[in-house]
Here is the input.
Amino acid sequence: MEWGPLPGSFGWVFPKGDVCTAGVVAARGEPAALRAYKDDFLERHGLRGPRPLHDTGHLTRCRHPGSPLARGRVLVAGDAAALVDHWSREGISYALRSGDLAGHAAARLVTAADEAEAHTTAVRYGQQVDDVLGVEMRASGTLMGLFTRNPGLVHTALTRLPPAWRRLDAYIAGRTSVAGIMTTPFARTATALATRLPRRPA
Here is the structure.
């Protein structure tokens, strides 16, 4: 992984057996600059030669707190609900977890006796998503804000402080979550200190 030159940007190369995935991500608004960053990133890592099995890109949106997750007897989950990690833009785990909740809620909606019961079921679904995934998204939003405000500080912490790197490694390996990282005493102290510093470039 590396921090990129655009706001909120980074690049990654993840080996997966006999293939690897590589790509870049950045905040919305500079598509030409993002493509240039991707080309440069692939070139620097010797990945411009092989023909890619897949070469895709898409716009991700992160849910705003309080955005509706249901209307009548229609529920949204995953990407349709903008359930995406603010920092990493990862969305598969959010889609699986919200899809499970939506499936159970949909089963209750089908048998709802009236609109009042259907409304209660839809409201409960939204609360479950917030209870399960909202905590993750709020923690990720805090980390993204910290990263955008002071990327150099975040980079230094992750590369020079072993506890910070071990937490990132655990996150990448799926052994912890962003909320698990941001609720540690170390992260809370670092966040409190960083928010008092002036905004700095990468």
Q: What stands out?
A: The chain has a mean pLDDT of 86. The first strand starts at residue 2 and ends at 3. Residues 115-149 form the longest helix (35 residues).
